[in-house]
Amino acid sequence: MEIELVREHIKSLLDRSWNMAKASPVDAIAEAHQAENLALEIDDTFLVQQSRFNRSWCLLYTGKYHQALGLLLDLLPWYDDYGDSYWLSKMYNAIGYTQQRLSRFGEALESYWKAREHAINASNTAEIFTTTNNLASLEIEKGEYQIALQLIAEADKRMKQDVPDHLLADIRLNRCKAQIAVNDVSQGEINLRKVINFARDLDYKTLEFDGLITLAMIYSERGQEDEAMVSISEAMKLALSLANTDLVSIVYLRRAQVLNARNNVTEAIENLSKCLYFVDQRDNKVALDAHRLLSSLYKHMGNYRQALEHYHNGSQLEKNIFHTESKAQIEALQIQLQAEKRIRETQLARIRNKELNARNQQLEIINLIGREVASSLDIHRIIQTLHKHFAELMGVQILGVALINEQTQALDFKYFIEKDMMLESFSIPLDTHASYATYAVNTGELVFSNNAREDAYEYFGNVQDNIVQGSFIYVPLYKDDAVYALFTLQSNKIQAFKVAHIELVRSVSLFLSIAILNALTHQHIQTLTREIVKEKNEIAHLASHDRLTKLNNRIGLESHFDQLSSQEGIQFAVVYIDLDKFKPVNDQYGHEIGDEVLQILAERMRRATRRSDIAARIGGDEFVIILNGVSTEAEAQQIVMQLQEKLSSPISVRDLILKLEASFGIAFYPEHGHSLKAMLKASDEAMYRVKYRDDKEPPFAVAVDFDDKP
């Protein structure tokens, strides 16, 4: 009897902990800990695991996502063995929610579909509703707002049955975000204010926080920065009351975005630095957005080194967050398809054995083809796989996918195969008359014919010479309720296909649409990656090169010097060059003429030196050349005299003929120093010894003493 009383007390603690989690997660953790200790004392394993499950949610609401995920993954094997679909649904929803907060979107999608499968098996309306809402939230975070609205509409259908108030608040907030994103801002804002008030009534602080941040961004978009700051300040109070560092980081990011809109760059950078401090090196979209904005701000300020550093950090984060997402999405969709297959098999068990066997055979074919196309991100390979199967099943000779080109308003036949040979691509305008392909695209309907030329009467009014005799099926492929591609199977024989083939092709086209979208996404990611690398290289080049002359600047010179000097036994010469009488050119003719003179002389230096040498501009009329492998005074003098000859040749600039000379100082590595600073000092001092020479004296001098002082 006493143990039963303890169990009742534990259940009371767990109920209290669960109800407190959204408003006071730190206090809720204490309640869950107390429940766990009591459960351990009476050796009740189920209540121990339930206590830990509650504690994981409390950790989630305090922003300790890694700790929460670790605890949930430790609990999962026990719940798997326990085998209760209701609890497995709750577990996978919690795991998915945590992965989403960590910006592991592909993994979150996979977990949510597992949660949905278990919720359906348990016939639990609340958990199905929760999973659908979580999927909508994930699609919003990924920017797929139309998909999110479809999921929200599906969740609405289940609201006829009892659903807890906090879940209703969640779905309403998601609806507001999606409405605002698809430009229904006015209605979205009205609903958002209602949601915020609803969250306050429920003491649901994390939801109230989310609503305030969304409202702040609406204000900021309108240019109402003061109102935005008020909402952000209210959100900060909530984040601090929850002791949630993740929410604090979001506040600093949003505040920085508003400050940037005000052109208050300094404070924006300070807030972004605080944001990254509270992110605490977690790979999530908050950190990614912070690095992107910092890179943009520093680039605008001309601080290219800091801009490059944050650009690199942001690129690495983007790769960590999104690079594997396509693969994870495919795995999640396969889980979804397997769940649907099991549901179909349960329904088919009620059908007569003969029909069941035939249907199962078709399902196996569909799932076999579906798995194969879903596992590839190469469209050519997908088309080859489909051609192999449909050639065996239906005698198909030509198979392919055409993509709609919105810019040219054409249908691009890019991926087509005939008898194992890929065909050359071609395009036709979308308004082409007497084309079955454009008819299918424009109507959005499946088009099927076993006698293409004869059926042309029905579709186009008369027989067209460009219509080839034979059979075909055209199936439009959809994305967000719009046709984006066309799948076709063709044979040069009439009456080649059966009506039963249409269902098979239609079912496979659902898998194909997902596979093509994933492959196109993968192509887009690869293109973005190449563009990121190119832009990164361009920024690095700008940071290390002089804009006027395109020679290395001091940063580039330091990099080359460090690379050379790190080689064992290396010898080279450093030549310090100062243009004589360049200042009068600037004073007399202006800086534009002076700049052109510098560009011409820089080009002459490039041509007069070897590929292995490094030329740099380190000041207005001061240049440095590293002569790689030159270790004797005779070698250096010969090259310097060639340089002097090139530099002192007359210069034609516009209508002017100018003539300049140069003074040269030579130092040898490692004889005159081990650091660039020491070598520049030695060669500079040598140059100044001949700067004011007589005309009969040579234009160069060699450094005398070793000097490697800092």
UniProtKB/TrEMBL annotation:
Stored SUPFAM superfamilies: GAF domain-like, Nucleotide cyclase, TPR-like
Q: Which domain of life does the UniProt lineage start with?
A: Bacteria
- Residue ranges occupied by any GGDEF domain in the UniProt entry: 570-704
* InterPro entries linked to this entry: DGC-Regulatory_Protein, GAF, GAF-like_dom_sf, GGDEF_dom, Nucleotide_cyclase, Rev_trsase/Diguanyl_cyclase, TPR-like_helical_dom_sf, TPR_rpt
Gene3D superfamilies given in the database record: 3.30.450.40, 3.30.70.270, Tetratricopeptide repeat domain (1.25.40.10)
Determine if Transmembrane helix is one of this entry's keywords: no
Q: Which UniProt keywords apply?
A: TPR repeat
Q: Do you know which Pfam families this protein is assigned to? A: GAF_2 (PF13185), GGDEF (PF00990)
TPR repeat boundaries on the chain: 288-321
The protein's name is GGDEF domain
